[in-house]
Design goal:
There is one protein chain. By secondary structure, this protein is an alpha/beta fold. 49% of the residues lie in helices and 11% in strands. The strands form 2 sheets. It has a 6-stranded parallel sheet. Helix 5 packs across helix 7. The longest helix is centred in the last third of the chain and has 40 residues. The relative contact order is 0.10.
Length: 409
Amino acid sequence: MVQTTIKYQGSIEHFVLIGTNFTKADIKTRSRFAITKATEADAYQKAIQSGLQDFFLLSTCNRTEFYACAPLDVLTQLVSTQLAVSESDFNQYFYKFSGTEAVHHFFQVVSGLDSQILGDYEIVCQVKASLDEARKHDLVGTITDRVTNYAYQAQKKVKAHTNLSSGKYSVSYAAAELIFHESQSQSFRNILIVGAGDFGAAVARNLRHYFPSIPIAISNRTREKSERVAEQVQAEIIDFDYFKNHLNRFDVVITTVGLEHYLVQPEEVQGLSKKLFLDLSVPQAVHPDVRNVNGVRLFSVDEVSAFHNDLLQQRKLEIPRAEKIIDLYMNQLIEWQHVYNHSHIVLSYKEKVRNLIFDQPTTPIEAAANDQNKKLDKAFSSLIQEIREHGYAGCRMIETLNNLVLVEK
């Protein structure tokens, strides 16, 4: 197979995204399009084979999104192949953005404005983990790196200067509070958490905060992760291959692990004592028909998130202030783009001028050479600032050169 490199790395206008989220699809549909650990590496390999050099994907309980610096049709083909998306599915469940629209959407995601729980701060860690994975495949180019950098800055400002993320509201906190709410009418003696990744660890910590003395058990495919989380919250460890043998011991079972198949089937909970299941996994880990088993209550991640909707209405008042902050950093990103577009020209001229200074036949005094260096740096710093504020123009380059005293005659 001949690999063709897609060289679309020079402008934020080439930044594109294709995705689906909680506004377009319910939990059952999102489960169909989720990227799991088992399929993540394959998706990155397909991106490399497609010739992409700037690409990452974000798959959480709320969304599955693919980002790239590439023609939109190239990314569309990759997503269609990876997720087996039909044309009708694309039209019904997916959105496509390019250029500043794609950047603005990403800023909203990172800042918690495009979350099922408004202001959800856990998304930042999920985005950073996604970027770390893309870097392992050498797929984070200049534009993606700069866009994410400005998005992180905007998120910090939103968190510091609005009440959008006030309090401790996220899916993991919503789960803990829902269990706490249910415990007012039903006594819970112990809790099992299946999945000890970053999300599962957050759930465990929040549960320990709400239930400081209740026994908690952790089960994860990788035992090292179980041990790390268990140490943080003083929890028991149950081997992943045998956790179903222990289901009858627990009043509450929480799943945070996404697989290509259902982990818990209805027949596996038949005849067990009264139970509360919280399936926070995407794809779903607990078969939806489990809710039909006598004595069992099942909440999906969408239902857990909806539990807090009424409590978070006041956050919506913060959206206009958060959007103003996002606009500020969007403008700074565009200013950076103006400079970046012409940086190679500026640096080329700067190097030529530097060579003219130091390639003279006379030997300059060291102090004089340092003085010329300072003049050179100052002149080109002023030029870059001019480009940032007004855009590139050749006359500004000529003016900069005219203002330089290259050598003493």
